[in-house]
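DATA SHEET
Item: assembly model
Revision: 1
Owner: S.N.
Input lines:
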Amino acid sequence: MKIVVLMKDVPDLVDELEVEDGVLALEDMTFVPSEWDDQALEEALLIKEEEGADVFVAAIDTGDVDTMLYTALAKGADQAVKIVGDFSRTLTNRERAKLFADFLRTASADLVLTGVQAIDDLDGQIAGLVAGALGVVHASVVRDVHTADGQVQFIQEYSGGRMAEFSAKTPALLGVQAARKPPRYVTIAKVRQVQKSGEITEVEGNLTETPTLAVRRVYQPVAQGHAEMWGDDVDEVAENIIRLLEDKKLLRG
Amino acid sequence: MQMGKIIVLAEFAEGALADATRELLTRARDIASAAGHTVTVVAFGDQARDGVREVDADEAVIISGPTVATYHPETYERAIGEVLSDDTALVMVSNTTMGMDLGASLAARQNLPMVAYCTDLVLEDGTLVATSQVYGGKLNAEVEVPLTGAVVTVIPGSWPSDPSRRGTPAIREQAAPSPEALELRRVIEAESGQDVDITKADILVSVGRGIEDPDNLELADELAEAIGGVVSCSRPVVDAGWLPRSRQVGKSGKTVKPKVYLALGISGAPEHLQGMKDAELIIAVNNDERAPIFDVAHFGATADILDLMPALAEKLTGRAG
Ligand SMILES: Cc1cc2nc3c(=O)[nH]c(=O)nc-3n(C[C@H](O)[C@H](O)[C@H](O)COP(=O)(O)OP(=O)(O)OC[C@H]3O[C@@H](n4cnc5c(N)ncnc54)[C@H](O)[C@@H]3O)c2cc1C
Ligand SMILES: Nc1ncnc2c1ncn2[C@@H]1O[C@H](COP(=O)(O)O)[C@@H](O)[C@H]1O
């Protein structure tokens, strides 16, 4: 079973997002792997360990994706692929999906995993976009992915805790909600070591026309309200909470 | 402009048309009236016939047959593909599992533009403008949606539905396709009864990834005990295997409305807020003062939860004794 994991990096929400003239200022941001792509990678690695598979990771070269790819190798992926070309940080998901789909047409993957969503999916989630472009069977909001007899089994979450178990013929593409174990951690030292010995395969990507959106502006929403803040003094905060609950007659005694 | 169709993909919850679908229908009619289009609702399964008989749509397409009794990515997508045509102005679907799964693949297959995570859709001088909630709720994008075939996925609860609107749509039946590559093995109903019911608690002590380590859950348990509440949590705590799924609050967990919701180390992602924003009193503790949870909380503090939980528990216990 050959599994390809599609990954992208996104701005780290721990940092403040700066908007200039209605456009998100991406230049100074720190980028981190999209948390759901990380979950997809973990699920792929668990399938490899428990059921056997070759795991490839692929990312589009929109900046520094090497660390993300080397980290995936350090975690246990077998090969890393970087789709290269003249791509900027502002690549839309439609463009990304097109590049991933072109790559997958020749990659002969049995199973493609990627995150259920990313924080910057304005024009659609990668999972659905790539599946639609390839016309391949797909499902998203998925967990507990297993492989057996050339088939792929998984759980798709509906809502309110309801879910369904599916079995798919390959090739299939799944949007992963969560891996069955928390993503593993690798030390920076290990990543550095892989960086010295491991290799990233470069594959040329060509941008062609995709549907575009006219984005008028992005802006920070004005919150309809804001909490009355008590600061960070533990004793004070604890007393405030108790006073509030007493006022509302919610405490025993 | 040529008259086109606004297509609403309907969903059902416990046999009845979902609130989220009613919201879509309300806005679909607003847009259709103003832009000179008609509304088509597409509904799946045998429950669909009764569910859409009186909705405010011009046409209802019932996809009937056992292969669409519950959501099935392959049969649903193929059936919808048959409904779309050159005169499709807009496809509206909720940002549910179905929307997250089908929206983008439909758009890609049909080469249509798409806007995800919409919280508003308004006609401004003849142009449909969508507001999309991205970056974990930290940014909104304002995007033009061409009414010449586009897909929008809409976050449930973004606007009210108008229950007074009724209609008699012309009903058309279409047989559901058979699956070819994807087999539904079984539907698993939500588990109930094995654990405490967090929807019934007056006070929820809800912990997020800020709890850092499963060993720290003891602090939350002790606090819940001292305050007379129940421990609930955000999704990552469940995904890590630290608490059972029955304790999860949010989009893919439970919707709760306790008297007090104590959010501890929870950032306030839209998917979490969806499950708790209507709690009577929300107190949030998060050491990042910019965490979005403070936008819905009534009171907030930037203390460290690992210090606060034992301190608060101790004061409460001392007070009772
Ligand atoms: C389809 C789908 C459905 C989803 N459904 C749900 C759902 O039902 N419920 C849900 O919760 N999520 C859901 N999510 C996930 C959601 O997007 C977020 O990832 C999740 O809510 C984040 O959880 P969190 O706030 O605990 O973690 P984080 O976002 O990591 O936040 C942790 C917070 O803790 C704070 N913190 C850390 N340490 C401390 C400390 N010592 N003291 C005080 N504060 C501290 C940090 O500042 C941070 O704000 C869903 C996602 C998808 C895609
Ligand atoms: N304070 C935290 N903030 C964000 N993520 C965390 C935090 N603590 C743990 N995690 C994540 O939770 C999972 C389990 O972490 P651990 O078992 O503590 O190594 C990993 O995916 C970590 O990245």
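QC remark: The first helix of chain A runs from residue 35 to 51.
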